[in-house]
Amino acid sequence: xxxxxxxxxxxxxxxxxxxxxxxxxxxxxxxxxxxxxxxxxxxxxxxxxxxxxxxxxxxxxxxxxxxxxxxxxxxxxxxxxxxxxxxxxxxxxxxxxxxxxxxxxxxxxxxxxxxxxxxxxxxxxxxxxxxxxxxxxxxxxxxxxxxxxxxxxxxxxxxxxxxxxxxxxxxxxxxxxxxxxxxxxxxxxxxxxxxxxxxxxxxxxxxxxxxxxxxxxxxxxxxxxxxxxxxxxxxxxxxxxxxxxxxxxxxxxxxxxxxxxxxxxxxxxxxxxxxxxxxxxxxxxxxxxxxxxxxxxxxxxxxxxxxxxxxxxxxxxxxxxxxxxxxxxxxxxxxxxxxxxxxxxxxxxxxxxxxxxxxxxxxxxxxxxxxxxxxxxxxxxxxxxxxxxxxxxxxxxxxxxxxxxxxxxxxxxxxxxxxxxxxxxxxxxxxxxxxxxxxxxxxxxxxxxxxxxxxxxxxxxxxxxxxxx
Length: 469
Prior knowledge:
By secondary structure, the protein is α/β, with parallel strands linked by helices. It is globular and about 80 Å long. It has helices spanning about 60-65, 80-90, 105-110, 115-120, 140-145, 170-175, 185-195, 210-220, 265-275, 290-300, 320-325, 335-345, 360-365, 380-390, 410-415, 445-450, and strands at about 5-10, 15-20, 25-30, 40-45, 50, 55-60, 70, 100-105, 125-130, 135, 155, 165-170, 200-205, 230, 245-250, 250-255, 280-285, 310, 330, 370, 435-440, 455-460, 465-469. The longest helix is centred in the middle third of the chain and has 14 residues, at about 290-300. Helices cover about 30% and strands about 25% of the residues. About 45% of the residues are buried.
């Protein structure tokens, strides 16, 4: 691999230096380096050189699917007429299905098969709630997947047992009954991530099957994904292939579904079973109730280094010290405040507003904190998430929990830990480190004053240029 010499880069917001890259590593840093024969040069013009960002919680396949879906919620669709028009204009897939995403009840109330039939009766339609927890099917879709005779616990039914067309936390079940489709091409997602300065991700999709793990592995092997990828949903016992060093297996994803919380005994047993394999857990906790049940289960099951809480959307102040005592990591998404904060302030009791997506109080208590997007359910842009963590402003301009604001530097650090250590020390540009780097158009102070994806100039993964403005 031909070497690369980066000229005049700003490092750590302080010094200006040349940086030599060879064999996928940063090999030398000095005030001035002499170009070697065959070495390419890249003038950084004083722009900040940072470790590549890590999105600690997103969903790769769902990002691919979103690109092929019709938007069914704000800001694209805001009322019933807009939803009817969007479904009418949607292009069905090769099997005649319409897939909608991003729905919220403020558009047209609770959707079920009857409501969707009134909007689009002639083609199978499935619409996903913007939370990602709920699918809503019209009658044609319900018939196609055999909903009437199915027994999945997430199938919502009327008093007489008739399915309503609403399915809670049934993604894998639904996917197995849809017309077959090849694995999505992750190359476009890889390009989008790279352009944002992201060089590592943790895929938080639960219950991945072996085929999905293999497809992601192939995307890494073939270069469609030039990133480091950590899988939280890989089956227990999965070992990453040695020839694909950029693939890692993370803590095991356990979903505490808001629609059907597990019993304390069941959750405790499941955590013990995961820990017995030597693997930590990544527990999806959105509500206060889910978090409290998790903490009670951990009291019995014990914790393992690396145990983490995903989302932590509502954290009562009284449990913050407990999170710190147990050394639980929190991977949260303040970007939701910038997109949905007004809904939260309307729907969540006022006494709990300070509990929403805590950040500053967790860091102050010693809880390792990492930031992420939850894309496609939240905004993918890490710079927008950083700005949201700093300002915590809702779309209407209200501030949700001003005491939970982070400094710009703290917010950036939330994206700089490696995927295997969310909330851990920020990676540094140093000799011997992997050459996963992002070069900004401006010095660090200017970027932190006004975070913006447009400031990303160049991105390197393993020393290779994968994005260049």
